[in-house]
Amino acid sequence: MDLPKFLLADNSKFPDDIFVLHTEFPRFLINLKDDEVEWFEDLTGENEEDIATELADLMDKAGAFYDEEMKLYE
């Protein structure tokens, strides 16, 4: 199955939270309300500088994905 790179997620137990799920390596769930991230990968052993740059870029892309999706509802 082909999955999109990003998915929107919500949960009725957290009505004020906005979640974006990144489905490719490194997989993570970010709560855009407070930028809290849950990682689904073990990133130990990765080059810290490279992974930090990549992760910051992915989190920015997750926010941009959400913004683009919300424009579809306007």
Label the overall shape.
globular
Q: Characterize the biggest β-sheet.
A: 4 strands, antiparallel
Distance between the termini: 30 Å
Count of DSSP-assigned helices: 1
% residues in beta strands: 15-25%
The amount of helix comes to: 25-40%
The helix-and-strand class reads alpha+beta
Arithmetic mean of pLDDT? 90
Over the alpha carbons, how many angstroms does the gyration radius reach?
A: 13 Å
**Topology pattern, helix = H, strand = E:** EEEEH
Number of strands: 4
How would you write the strand order of the largest sheet? 1-2-3-4
**Runs with pLDDT <50, length 5+?**
none
Task: Describe the 3D structure.
With 74 residues, the chain is α+β, with helices and mostly antiparallel strands. 32% of the residues lie in helices and 22% in strands. The protein is built from one helix and four strands. The protein has one helix spanning 48-71; strands at 6-9, 19-22, 28-31, 36-39. β3 and β4 (36-39) form a beta hairpin. The longest helix is centred in the C-terminal third of the chain and has 24 residues, at 48-71.
Lay out the secondary structure.
Layout: E1 6-9, E2 19-22, E3 28-31, E4 36-39, H1 48-71
Antiparallel strand pairs: 1-2, 2-3, 3-4
Kindly list the characteristics that best describe this protein:
globular, four-stranded antiparallel sheet, single chain, alpha+beta, 74 residues
